[in-house]
# Entry
Amino acid sequence: MSNYDLKQEVTDKYSLRGRVFNKLRADILSGKYKDHEELKEVAIGEELGVSRTPVREAFRQLELEGLIQIIPNKGAYVTGITAKDVQDIYMIRSLLEGLCARWATEHITEAQLEELEENVYLADFHASKGHLDQMADLDNRFHHILYEACNSRQLERLLVDFHEYVLRVRKKTLSNGGRGKISNDEHRQIMEAIKDKDGGRAEELAHEHMINAYDNMVKNGLYHIYPMEGEESLEMEGRDKP
Amino acid sequence: MSNYDLKQEVTDKYSLRGRVFNKLRADILSGKYKDHEELKEVAIGEELGVSRTPVREAFRQLELEGLIQIIPNKGAYVTGITAKDVQDIYMIRSLLEGLCARWATEHITEAQLEELEENVYLADFHASKGHLDQMADLDNRFHHILYEACNSRQLERLLVDFHEYVLRVRKKTLSNGGRGKISNDEHRQIMEAIKDKDGGRAEELAHEHMINAYDNMVKNGLYHIYPMEGEESLEMEGRDKP
DNA sequence: CTAGGTATAATTGTATGCAATCATACGATA
DNA sequence: TATCGTATGATTGCATACAATTATACCTAG
# Structure
């Protein structure tokens, strides 16, 4: 995986609850826990070397993210994620990324615009060199700048969430063929539309960018639902297990 | 308030945690807790007559909904909701309701379509009679049918969530002037577009319907952010407080 | 042999205790 | 007087104990 770390994990990374949450989410999205599988508090707790309390708190959050369903007094059941979910999310994202680009056009600061330009410029360089990790970082960063620039807490929260989600089921999308270069060209167009204060064009370009990304991902089989491959293991590092 | 109950509260209503969650969310959205106010576990717990455990679990969920921010080892702080949040949500919703209508056109069942027709027909009657509560129920139900009909877990989850959200800050939007009638006319047009299998038109109509609803709400000052008025009190009914 | 019921086990829901962390106040020192 | 350090209190993080609920197994009656 790349060395890019989202600035804020959805929940804090250093509490037990946060680590349980992130681990379980990763395990669900990566397919370790199968659809409809029951998650038992004590079992999870023992596996991770923690008590039921942080496990329960993590469950509550996973439920709100739609990854598990909790039936009161019965149990927590994995909801999994299907290929259709991924497709739907990309379609939803394509609309929202468009809206985001439009709003960003109206609200972006000079500093943010400059960072966008620098991002595109740098990505051009790394694309030519085939530096995949850096490309992935810059891609993530590009979108996050727009999320911030759109000046909407609500939209930013949604998009950050979806982006997170997608990162987990996506293999290195940019690593194949010329998509890295093409993707960055699309970034450049978006950036220039924003620079020109052409919100409508920015919206349309961002919209298409997302659809292209999805098409490319599907066409090349670059995403998994339940891969079972040795993804980054998200171990509970730094804690002694009794 | 109307006698309409969302089929599923976001979290179950009869556990202590669920009641704490719903109560806190309502109190935040209704303005009982002001922006940046700190929520203390013991204080909330004592107020509601429960221990810290269910309060903590409710906090975790409220954090994910963006209503509070939890700073590890420090505390939970209310994020509140601003007029801009409401506006943004309506703009986001207008896009997603459009997408929902389009997808619903492709996936709606005969039974669902029939319920839509019945809904519009009935609403016409109640509109002429000025039955506000029934109008509100039918309005909610109309949208929920579409949420189900769109055949997308992801989109449904988002829209149900936003709808819930909006219900809390909205006074009786349909109660004024002729909006009830007009709104139902828009519903009819959407329904007919879906019946005609014209997804594009359904999308556009649903999109505009939402923008109209927002405009009407704002123009008439029919929503509140921090009202302090005697909203339904969402008491923790059915539990003895020691 | 099956249906129903009861006892028992397993699991979740809640409360509480203890440890860790953070805020505050007070005092010592420059 | 200002600043740093320490002590104390408040608050959260986690673990565990107990209560309530649900699932399972076994036994009995028909």
The first strand of chain A starts at residue 38 and ends at 39. Residues 83-107 of chain A form the longest helix (25 residues).
